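Same chain as my last thread, 433 residues:
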Amino acid sequence: MKKIKLKKAGLFLIVLLLGITPKGYTQQSNSEENSREDAINIFIDGERLDMNYVREQIPYANFVRDTQDADVYILETLQTNGSGGQTYTYIFEGQKDFINMNDTLSLSTSPDDTFDQTREKRTDRIKLGLVRYVARTPMADELQISSSGGTQRPEVEVVDKWNNWVFEVQTRPRYNAQDRVKSLSMTNSIEISKVTPDIKIEIDARHSTSKSKYSFGEETFEAIRNSFSFDNLIVFSLNEHWSAGSKFDYTRSTFSNYDSQIEITPSVEYNIFPYSESTHRQLRIMYGMGVSLNNYTDTTIYFKDKENLIKQQLQVAYRVQEKWGYVNMSLEGSNYMHDFEKNRIEVSGTLSLRITRGLSVNINSSYARIRDQISLPKGEASEADVYLELRELATAYDFSSSIGLTYTFGSIYNNVVNPRFGNFSGMMGGFRR
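reply #2:
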């Protein structure tokens, strides 16, 4: 009897593994399950969208995995707004039968919005933008237009008691222990900002302290590392291309050998493209010249205990996001005016490129040529300094790079939502497409 039961159980398991449909079980046809013939095909290029939720809320569209198969390409970009929330911009680009039917919508969220509220608002804005396309298909009969409230509302003047000021306070303790290294750290910060079309003010105060203990053989090293920074930025909007402002930075750091460093840098910036297009493309050129007032903890390798210097810096930043991918690049150079050999050049970039159907490449690189480490203390670094990273070390460069290739093939449709067991390849990574 037991053998018969085991045989039946084994047969049932084989049936499950082979995907055989038992008699009496009704399965949807492929056309019903994967796509709808009369529905438009859309591709959404968004940042951390909950695509399972989006598919559930927009059943009157087919979601394809390649831009070439889409009737409508939707690009979602975002920027942090003055309240600390996000401003999303949606660019709808019609393709095939909808060529030249383009549109742009925007949405602003509050930092108080929950994930579910933000998810719903983003999806509703996509649904709103799709109406004009769906209205030209047989699926229009399935749409219903409704209002969330009365059509006539008295205009009410909004009074902001905070006058656009936003405050954020954070504290973060951290403990780490290994066989030979133990550390306890605490980071506290407060961020204050005010952002309007005419002015931008950002204030950031940050304090961190850490205590580390390192054991090597019978010896034990113990050290404390502290830092405090106060950064202030004020920017005035002059027109659609020009801005002017100033940065004020105060730093105290045992790692960088500063008892205090004060930098005041008036700057101007020119954006080749209008600032109103900044969520889609930017090409900004910023130049600043200011003073650096330095008091060192220990005498430097240049035998200085304090010095006041003039410093200039130039930065070029480029960003564009299109349906073929996106590019982020920046080039920054700076030098001290008393000695042009005391300089630094940094270049960094990110390229995400869709090469062909299903194939994309992602490249990240950064390089810094460093010649301006004026605060290095004289004398050799101790073993504790090196292992516990207690002080800045001399270097001529800093380089990092990575490249990734992604290739996807199979059905062009990805309408089906099945959350069972999560997504095995990304169960710890949140929502995935």
